[in-house]
Amino acid sequence: MEKNYKFWPEGVEKHIDYPEIPAFEILRSSARKWPERNALIFQGKEITYRELDSLSDRFAAALAKLGVAKGHRVGIHLPNSPQFAIAYFGILKAGAVFVPISTMLADKELSFLLRDAGVETYIGLDTTCNEKHYALSGTPVQRVIPVNLSGEAPAAKSSPPETRDFAALLKDSDPNPPRIDFNPREDLAHIAYTGGTTGTPKGAMITHYNVVVNTCQYFCWFAGGVLTWRNGIIDIERREGDREENHCLLPGRETVLVVSPWFHAMGVIGYVNRLLVLGATIVVFPRFDPGEFLRAIPRYRPTFFGGAPALFIPLIEHPLYRETDMSGIKAVGSGAAILSPSLISALEEKFPRRILEGYGMTEATMGAVNSPPTPKIWRPGSVGLPIPDTEIKIVDPEKGETELPIGEAGEICIRGPQVMKGYLNRPEETAQVLRSGWLYSGDIGRMDEDGFLYIVDRKKDMLIYKGYNVYPRDLEETLNSHPAVAQSAVVGKKDPRSGELPAAFVRLAPGKTATEQELLEYANQRLAAYKKIRILKIVDSLPVSAAGKILKRELKKIVESW
User: Fold this and answer.
1) Is residue 113 situated within a structural domain?
2) What CATH number does the domain containing 134 carry?
3) pLDDT digits (tens, 9 = 90+) for 338-391
4) Are 419 and 210 in contact (CB under 8 A)?
5) Contact 504, 536 (CB under 8 A)
């Protein structure tokens, strides 16, 4: 189906000339353009773009001295912090491959990831490095770099493999990084693990070119203009009639509060690289505390923030939310999961027509679809339009061969220069998802006549009730339309007669009341007979991943015990 440009945002190019450069040039470019502007603020400490670039140079030199060479895998197992950013860009400058590690992994999961990715250098918190000794044993890890978030060298302790303190390495290293020859289209920048909520995690191989492309796609989507690469600087030029103030985010002028975890694709691309190429000041939070977050708004006067729906719910529930002046915030971004109508309504009170949803996946580096950053082009319920150089098609979910008509739900397929190289050491799984240049997402969606994408469900989450396909997202949207519902999740309970029974978990909105029977009747009056919810429980919270996605595998364990 031909791409629809009817509602394409003004001043945003449909096609971009992407520079074929290593991903760390994103930071280098901004350090040349805004050397004395703050890149990071962490617990009151300020780090300029020049300092961040210099410190990551030092870390790259330190890694090279330790024996880390091009193609070696280095894992970062840290919360958001300046040390994370320094290590990330240092790894890339050393020619090594960044392996993000969720801080929520159990030891068994950590061991699997280290072995599967072939991680040789492990960077983790000094307070937990010794605790992870068991998880590190039997893995390829040869050296450990403990990090103290205060920046101080920790006291000497017994440690696993060769151990070199992060702060000491920075202090003692040469300021000149190694000279590495890069082939950006082929050389890996990231091995990012995905699929952990539904099965064995797989390492998506993301090249330097993938990172640069996806970063520039979102840079131009929000800032507009024609992308240029000259004299080591990524910049934008304006066509006649295109004014800077017409766009959502302005280069060198934004301040952004960031809580999205950097070990996740949305974090490292959307809330590190995209913001750094923009010249934004990033106010970094190592964890999410709604009170701390809200108190930071009058202090730092941010112009943008974002994350997953799991971020917004406790934010709205906090007593400070209503009294906090947020008039300076130009837009709020949301991704990783769909916002419920009640959540959108609550956010709209503070941010009218400025809630920008997006859709993507780790296999697409981060993103493929986003709401147009223009208030007059806002379509609630949709995740937006395909971004520059990105195509979306909807195919039949069974064989994936027939493209479906407008409005019909099927599997979402993505084609664009941000799509991964493949899964690490998994040729069969790669062949299943990369077919004829298209990435088969495993998500079910539909497109309207104007090219806007709507997410229906995960293909794997689909239930079969008496032979009928039931998409939990349909049921969740119905439940979420009740004014008392903040969030819901539907999973299948195995049943010998029917196959699977739809079972719902519901979290009520702040200050609202409803009974389980009332919600059950409300939903089932609006659903076809084969879609009706058979079991419903009101809960205080829903289990979510660090990225904000509801962990349905946990809910399935609960429902099978009923």
Assistant:
1) yes
2) 3.40.50.980
3) 777 778 888 888 887 688 999 999 999 999 999 999 877 878 789 999 999 999
4) yes
5) yes
